């Protein structure tokens, strides 16, 4: 049976299926597994910001296929995804620039980069992405957006307006389904009461971004219902 979107799994089945996919996928490099293990020791609210093992595997496969020479990441967090990009580009030795406004998280990430010998190709920038984007020069073949969701449209507009994306480049935008809130705001009732309103406000911003990305005349946009929603953007 062909489903228009995702298989009709219960929450328990989703977890089980994720474990199944991890079992039958190639094992991730030690650097990524160790940093995921480190991240899992943080608070519950922090842990959810990190990519899963399956998402890391997918990011590595996508990156290997694209073979980018330069990668830009907006939102370093603890460095898990940056390490995935690093491991995926050992053949073509891509330069990776990762930025985050949090000194705390950048410290975690930079310690991991040093520990795994990744500082030869990964550089970090601290500060709000909208302030640090103008400091960049040249173009990037892969841009991964996983920072402040309410600023996604501003990031993308700046990247396109200033040609930071190369002619063959791809922007990957994470979390575009926002726990499903962009599709069904009643899902907010499952969240702790104190964060329901803030998340609904972000969902409104994400809906606005999704509408913008789909209608932006300069690019081709594909929204993929995997993980927490990923949108792929390329020049036409």
UniProtKB/TrEMBL annotation:
CDD domains: AdoMet_MTases (cd02440). Transmembrane segments: none annotated. Keywords: Methyltransferase, S-adenosyl-L-methionine, Transferase. Coiled coil: none annotated. GO terms for biological process: methylation. GO terms for molecular function: O-methyltransferase activity; S-adenosylmethionine-dependent methyltransferase activity. Belongs to the class I-like SAM-binding methyltransferase superfamily. Cation-dependent O-methyltransferase family. PANTHER family: CAFFEOYL-COA O-METHYLTRANSFERASE 3-RELATED (PTHR10509:SF14), O-METHYLTRANSFERASE-RELATED (PTHR10509). This is O-methyltransferase domain-containing protein. The lineage of its organism: Eukaryota, Fungi, Dikarya, Ascomycota, Pezizomycotina.
